[in-house]
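agent> Task received from the user: take the single chain below, predict its 3D structure, and emit structure tokens. No templates, no multimer pairing.
agent> Plan: (1) validate residues, (2) run structure prediction, (3) serialize to tokens, (4) report one or two observations.
agent> Step 1 OK, no nonstandard residues flagged.
tool_call: predict_structure(input=
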Amino acid sequence: MKGKIDFEGNLRILRKVAGEEKYLLQHCPFLHGWKPCGIWCPLFEEPQTYKIKDKIFWNLALCKKVLVFEDFIDERGEKIEKVAPKMELDETE
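)
tool_result: status=success, residues=93
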């Protein structure tokens, strides 16, 4: 799957529409109206990357799902290309 966070912070997923591919705005299924899924939501996490056999994938955790992308662009800034840092427990506290 291919996706992006657009310059306004909204999630878009690449879909085929009338024979051509377009990044379509995704809407929150839990709110009334047409509120887009995006960084405004406290349950929208930052994309994380991981590597399997020299291939990079992006995980995007949302309110009730984790989406996995083979190609992901963050238009808020740079394209996310680094592997997510390892989380380590701070045992000094």
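agent> Step 4: summary for the user.
Residues 2-74 form one domain.
agent> Done.
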